[in-house]
Design goal:
Helix content is 80%, strand content 8%. The protein is built from 9 helices and 7 strands. The mean pLDDT is 77. By secondary structure, it is α+β, with helices and mostly antiparallel strands. Helix 1 runs antiparallel to helix 2, helix 1 packs parallel to helix 9 and helix 2 packs antiparallel against helix 4.
């Protein structure tokens, strides 16, 4: 009897140690679940905050875009004004060229007249010499000679007056030619300065236009990428609605699949009901096929989250454990029949306790709050990288200015 009693005491001691160890393991498991939950939520919130910040930055850049477009219009108007001014200058230049041609013809004519005057002076001088020689050779009286000489002198004075007049005309013409040449040189210098100024302004306008076009191009690329991401999400939601119809609840904004916990689990249980498994499998296969079979959707897919939710009855830790276990149960069920290795890379399970209740008319709807949600998250890393690249470019341009 004594031996049996000792054996019995030893058994209960060993049993107590075993239960204490199991309790310790259970506490560690709960602690790990809580830590993993908060880490997962922190990561998701951080991503959401990054995306919201990026969208806000994009909205700010859209405002800058409108300002840049207005500036571009001003540049275009200025360029049109410069084109008109250039046309006017070219027209004036053509007029100056015609005037210069006329001046050159006038100078040539004056030079010809000057040459004729020189010939006339030479001829008159020669005629005077011949006349004096004739008078000297004539055998006439002194009185006649004096009269002849007086007549010749009178002719000479008249000729000299004509010659003086011709020299005066020649001098006036030479002054006009000099003045016209000086004006032509001054106008040529002004034309060169205006042409240099126009060339400089056109170069600056071209540089500004290239910078504005580059900024607008980068901004449009970023906007198109974000629109493409949004368009993909809308397409996914539409395809899911088409696949599943009205048989299950689909959130029209997020595309989340909502499944009532009362259909999948018994009260306070995390074991899937056998009679719910077949319908759940068909629903999930349709949902996942939309995400996995389209290359464009899969390329932008980040995560597929299985979330467990409870109502507010009971404590937070109890409901956190229950929601986490139900999410794990759904993931285990998926892995039991899923053969697509790609899907496994996207799946994560998370318990939310009663942190996201369903509110109707300002009051918690407890039946609707007890649910499993399957939701997809699209990767916004590429869009955020594009936005950051654009913002860095904009800051660098501001520093350079």
């Amino acid at each position: 009897m004594k031996i049996n009693k000792e054996e019995k005491d030893t058994f209960w001691i060993a049993y107590a140690d075993l239960m204490a160890g199991l309790l310790f393991v259970f506490i560690l498991l709960i602690g790990g679940i809580i830590v993993k939950y908060f880490l997962t939520q922190s990561t998701l919130k951080k991503k959401e905050a990054d995306f919201i910040t990026a969208i806000a930055s994009l909205q700010s850049q859209e405002k800058k875009n409108s300002e840049l477009e207005a500036l571009n219009k001003i540049f275009s108007d200025k360029l049109n004004e410069l084109d008109l001014e250039t046309k006017d200058l070219k027209k004036a230049q053509s007029i100056f060229i015609v005037q210069i041609d006329e001046l050159e013809k006038m100078v040539s004519s004056l030079n010809d007249e000057n040459s004729d005057l020189n010939k006339t002076l030479t001829r008159l001088y020669n005629e005077k010499l011949e006349q004096e020689q004739i008078i000297n050779n004539l055998n006439i009286s002194e009185e006649e000679k004096r009269q002849k000489i007086a007549e010749l002198n009178k002719q000479k004075d008249t000729q000299e007056q004509v010659i003086a007049g011709l020299y005066a005309i020649k001098s006036t013409q030479e002054e006009q030619i000099y003045k016209l040449n000086k004006e032509k040189l001054a106008q040529d210098e002004k034309d060169r300065e205006k042409e240099a100024k126009i060339v400089y302004l056109l170069e600056q306008m071209s540089k500004k236009e290239q910078e504005v076009n580059q900024i607008l191009y980068d901004l449009n690329v970023t906007k198109n990428r974000i629109k493409n991401l949004t368009g993909i999400k809308v397409k996914v939601i539409a395809d899911i609605k088409e696949k599943l119809g009205d048989s299950v609840s689909i959130d029209v904004n997020s595309g989340a699949l909502r499944l009532s916990s009362s259909i999948l689990f018994d009260k306070a249980s995390s074991k899937l009901k056998d009679d719910a498994k077949e319908e759940l499998k068909r629903t999930l296969q349709k949902y996942f096929s939309v995400l996995m079979q389209n290359d464009e959707i899969r390329k932008n897919l980040d995560q597929i989250v299985i979330e467990g939710h409870t109502d507010s009855d009971g404590g937070y830790i109890y409901n956190l454990e229950l929601s986490q276990q139900r999410a794990f149960a759904v993931m285990d069920f998926i892995n039991s029949w899923n053969s697509d290795e790609r899907l496994k890379n996207y799946l994560i399970a998370s318990g939310r306790s009663f942190m996201s209740p369903v509110i109707k008319d300002g009051v918690e709807d407890k039946d609707a709050s007890r649910r499993i949600e399957i939701k997809f998250l699209l990767s916004n890393k590429a869009a955020i990288d594009e936005i950051q690249k654009f913002l860095n470019y904009d800051r660098n341009q501001s520093k350079n200015r």
